[in-house]
Amino acid sequence: MKSFAELLDEAKKCPPKRVAIAVAEDGEVLEAARACQENGIAAAVLVGDAVKISKIAKDRKIDINSFEVIHEPDHESAVRRAVLMVHTGKADMLMKGAIHSPVVLKAVLDKNIGLRTGRGLTHVAVFESPGYGRLMLMTDAGMNIMPTFEQKVDMVKNAVCVAKSLKIDTPKVAIIAGLELVNPDMPSTVDAAMLSKMAERGQLKDCIVDGPLSLDLALSKESARAKGVTGLVAGQADILVLANIDAANVLYKALVFLGGAKITGLVVGAKAPVILTSRADSHEAKLVSVALGVLMTSKDSVKVNGQNQTEIRKVTDGLKVV
């Protein structure tokens, strides 16, 4: 897919889903819920303070009579009820409202009512950058601070799941580092080489992985030619895997504030997509995130490594990492 408009159009072709919104008393959240309904992609279940939700909706001229509203004024209880809806199959995805992300993630990881699968949770961002001509993915700007090698394996697998829902059949994955040569003094380059070898040996399926690659080599064919770097990923990456949350968060915000990119994303690896958009995000951004969740949960969702993304899998598919 080349744009968020195309992503939204594809979501409209899928059967409508249900999204449970935790602490829904927020204007942009309610605008997004209305937009989801108007576009026919998802019905929203508003969990939160019904009095505040009603007042905000009235101020925004949003008719909430067609929404299911569950009155739960306590924030943590509202989050738990929304998560439980997804856990029991009464909703297809979870969306954060006017609440901090750690509160949502605590409930998602709850052993009794949460959405654990056995695979680590990672954040996968999708961005539409002016002049680039297609959608690209990046991980992990929101979950794993200093990912271990095992977590990086999850980051790749989860991003591949999202890429395939965007009709990128065999995504090209660039493991980003400060340079393209393996240097024992730079652990990120060693991890990148190991991930590349795993893909080469068939331990990471349904994708092409190369690294370490500097950012310019991952994105620019001209840079790759100038530096003599060949391969199927150099200059044409679909997925960028960053070494740590600092690098990923800086790139994420640089794309938005310096590059004018539009970005959406999901937390992947749970039983269902978890939408953790910023409370400052517009309702349009939240709408696209729900649309991405719809594609991830559609019955036509492709399988990766022979299994659906929501099935329980071991982190490294039997690989023992020393």
Molecular structure report:
- The chain is elongated.
- Helix 2 (27-38) crosses helix 11 (283-297).
- The chain has 322 residues and is α/β, with parallel strands linked by helices.
- It folds into two domains: 1-116 and 270-300, Rossmann fold (3-Layer(aba) Sandwich), CATH 3.40.50; 122-266, 3-Layer(aba) Sandwich (Isopropylmalate Dehydrogenase).
- The longest helix has 17 residues, at 149-165.
- It starts with a helix and ends in a 25-residue tail after the last helix.
- It has eleven helices and eleven strands.
Descriptive terms for the model:
single chain; 322 residues; alpha/beta; Rossmann fold; Isopropylmalate Dehydrogenase; 6-stranded mixed beta sheet; 5-stranded parallel beta sheet
Overview in brief:
This protein is of the alpha/beta class.
Tally of discrete structural domains: 2
How are strands sequenced across the largest beta sheet? 8-7-9-6-5-10
| Class of secondary structure makeup | alpha/beta
Q: Which percent range fits the helix content?
A: 25-40%
Q: In percent, how much strand structure appears in the residues?
A: 15-25%
Report the average pLDDT across residues: 90
- Contiguous low-pLDDT stretches (5 residues minimum) are 300-322
The CATH class of the largest domain turns out to be: Alpha Beta
End-to-end separation in angstroms reads 38 Å
The tally of helices reads 11
In CATH, the topology of the largest domain is named: Rossmann fold
